[in-house]
């Protein structure tokens, strides 16, 4: 009986120890899992914060790129408008140059006709000296007008050539294509006043 009782007590003690040992093991396992979950949560929070910082930096870069793009578009529009104005101005200058050339041609034709008329009158019998003088004055006036027209046309052509050759302001032009006139006989003409208040030209 004593042996049986001792064995029963030992078995009961062993069972009690096993039960406590199992509880302790489970407790340790749960504690380890909680520690692992806490560490995982901390790592996830750190990673989330890092992603937030990267996202903020990317948003800042995107805002800078958008601003640079808007500035580039504005600059492009300004350049396009400036180019359009330059084209219009060039067309106006070309039109003025064509008009001036037409006036020069007309003045040249008138001068030629007056020279022919003066030559005819000088070769004819000189009954009336006022007619050759009037034609001569008209011829000189036409020559002076032609000189001024050629001068203005030369300036226009020079400005147009300069604008076409270089966009930089202040660059020297290549000079006009037309003649400036004003040399010799026709360049020495000056104004005089006849009777009656009419202004004519004399040598």
TrEMBL record:
Residues 119-134 have a biased composition (Polar residues). Residues 172-185 have a biased composition (Gly residues). Residues 7-19, 73-113, 155-165 have a biased composition (Basic and acidic residues). InterPro entries: Ferritin-like_SF. Residues 1-27, 73-134, 155-189 are annotated as: Disordered. Transmembrane segments: none annotated. This is Uncharacterized protein.
